[in-house]
Automatic annotation (TrEMBL):
Function: Necessary for normal cell division and for the maintenance of normal septation.
Organism: Rhodanobacter thiooxydans
A GO biological-process term: division septum assembly
Keywords: Cell cycle, Cell division, GTP-binding, Magnesium, Metal-binding, Nucleotide-binding, Septation
Gene name for this UniProt entry: engB
HAMAP family in UniProt: GTPase_EngB
Name this protein carries in UniProt: Probable GTP-binding protein EngB
Source taxonomy: Bacteria, Pseudomonadati, Pseudomonadota, Gammaproteobacteria, Lysobacterales
UniProt xrefs under Pfam families: MMR_HSR1
Length: 233
């Protein structure tokens, strides 16, 4: 199966929301604790091993990092059917092109950084989630072996309150048996409150478990129509 997220490229690393690319098009944010495997997941999904920095020291992502995906206009109209098979992001004939991006949010909750920087991250992530009009959904990364932490719950609560779609990747599934992973996934889905626009799956960047499913979920979020705008803060 072809990779619809292939061709992702680093654009910039922003210390503040105001430094991100122009707020147009569509983007999906990746959020999660610093030790949950967020960078590895991004690399696996895009098929680019060096796209997001990975390290044995959690918390190396200390800015909002924006990655661009190939614009829709790069897909020749004359090959629309083939393009739909290779790149599900492609626009239908006659529709305008759309800029698409992935945004890696700073890892939270584990990094050994000054309290002042932690507070800066908290404020900027909050501002990003509330103000970013091109944001179509969140991919939340969490270690399948552990219960959701406070930050994870806060992110789900935000998505619930604003109606923002969320896809939960339960990473490091290769550390569990297939039966254990299935039980963890079922328990997670059962814990979602009614009305939460969230999906969940097991995932392992090491074993390749769930990679195609996750790619399809990201594409679905990018193609999600924008319903309303978050309140500015």
């Amino acid at each position: 199966m072809s990779n619809p997220l292939q061709g992702a490229q680093f654009v910039l690393a922003a210390h503040r929301v105001s430094q991100l690319p122009a707020d147009r098009g569509a983007e999906v944010a990746f959020a999660g604790r610093s030790n949950a495997g967020k960078s590895s997941a991004l690399n696996a999904l895009t098929g680019h091993k060096g796209l997001a920095r990975t390290s044995k020291t959690p918390g190396r992502t200390q800015q909002m990092v924006s990655f661009s995906l190939p614009p829709y206009k790069d897909v020749p109209v004359s090959r629309a059917q083939d393009a739909q098979e290779r790149l599900p992001l492609a626009q239908a004939e006659g529709e305008p092109s759309l800029e698409v991006r992935l945004v890696d949010l700073p890892g939270y909750g584990y990094a050994k950084v000054p309290q002042e920087l932690r507070e800066h991250w908290r404020q900027e992530i909050d501002r990003y989630l509330h103000q970013r009009r091109s944001l179509r959904g969140v991919v939340l990364i969490a270690d399948i072996r552990h219960p959701l932490k406070e930050f994870d719950r806060m992110m789900l609560d935000f998505c619930f309150a604003t109606g923002l779609p969320c896809h939960l990747l339960l990473t490091k599934a290769d550390k569990l048996s297939r039966n254990q992973a299935a039980q963890a996934l079922a328990a997670m889905r059962k814990s979602f409150p009614d009305g939460l626009h969230a999906t969940a799956q097991v995932f392992s960047s090491t074993a390749g478990t769930g990679v195609d499913e996750a790619r399809a979920a990201v594409v679905a979020l990018l193609r999600q129509p924008r319903e309303g705008v978050h309140q500015d803060r």
